[in-house]
Amino acid sequence: MDTGSDLVWFPCAPFECILCEGKSNPSMSTKPANISRNDAVSCKSPACSAAHTSLSSSDLCAISRCPLESIETSDCSSFSCPPFYYAYGDGSLIARLYRDSLSLSSITLRNFTFGCAHTALGEPIGVAGFGRGLLSLPAQLATFSPQLGRQFSYCLISHSFDKQRVRRPSPLILGRYDDEKEEKHKRIVDGGEVVEFVYTSMLENPKHPYFYSVGLAAISVGNRTIPAPEMLRRVDRRGNGGMVVDSGTTFTMLPASFYNSVVAEFDRRVGRVHERASEIEDKTGLGPCYYMEKGVVMEVPIVTLRFEGRGSDVVLPRKNYLYEFLDGGDGVRRKRKVGCLMLMNGGDDAELSDGPGGTLGNYQQQGFEVVYDLEKKRVGFARRHCASLWDSFCVFLHCKVQKT
Fold first, then answer.
1. Are 368 and 226 in a shared domain?
2. Is 75 one of the annotated active-site residues of the chain?
3. Residue limits of the Peptidase A1 domain (predicted)?
4. Does any domain span residue 336?
5. Burial class (CB in 10 A: 0-12, 13-18, 19+), 98
6. Are residues 52 and 99 in the same domain?
7. Which end of the chain has the lower number of beta carbons within 10 A, N or C?
8. Active site residue 282
9. What is the pTM of this model?
10. Do 183 and 350 contact (CB within 8 A), yes or no?
11. Which tens digits make up the pLDDT trace of 37-95?
12. Active-site residue, selected from the candidate residues 6, 246, 327, 373
């Protein structure tokens, strides 16, 4: 489930994934889907243009080897949309567009458009694109039911890098409640406490319209507020800048100059009390990292994301920006507890001048319900106990919960 892209796709037989060693591969566990060519999307379809980044229907029909006389008479419906290339930050694929019925709980979406990939690079699973584009799941839901498609939210359970750990899934909520039901729901969640969302406005991006871009005004480390550069506060007329809220990226990425300022303030406060773990930084690529002496709680300043808009501050829990783990115990070194700051350098400011200024990753979103209100064009954050959120909804909705 990826808010940073707008295509819904999955592997189709026969399927080959390049450089997917060590990743879950559906060809090894479940048989990839077999899709009938009768369900192929026409090259005249707007969905085909969207997949090919707004090529005209005439260009697409020519690529599909539609004869000139058919193009001139607008009679290309029998020719399918040609294969397209789709890229992510860490992988890519080649797919074709198809239409079929999609069942979601008690509803069925007719003529649902999706990509069918036979070859992928580093992407073995498939992705449900939740971006703002025509092909995304929310956009297609909205054509069936505006009530379902105009808002969605998710609540990401705490990260764990232990592959053996059994975790409950993170709930995804499609649609919204009317005001009366929503207030009742707020009281049920978290033991009767009314939980308020903190909202910030979505920024329109003419160059990357599928991004959920917001303005980041500053980051506070303890009681010191570090103003964000202009490139994170807004999107310019060329579509550059802004902070992308992305469920599909792990860590928050900041422009180098801003990142360095935040790290310097964090180190000024933590480094004067705790020993810097330089060896860990060299080995893991994380940083800054510090040794936490046995029995001593690390003194860590509170980190707050200050988004554009009044009352749009999000106070991060400690686990959302400090990763704590044990290092050593290999017979040479004794085990020592280490804590590392989990914000990342997104690159030089000049390199980020052509595109988004930064990314809010899912590591910093854990333990929050993040709501995307497409009707009011805003993104909201509220602290939640995500592992029990689904149970709370079921108390309200009187549904049956299957324990896993």
1. yes
2. no
3. 1-382
4. yes
5. buried
6. yes
7. C
8. no
9. 0.87
10. no
11. 668 999 989 999 999 987 888 999 999 999 998 888 888 888 999 999 999 888 899 99
12. 246
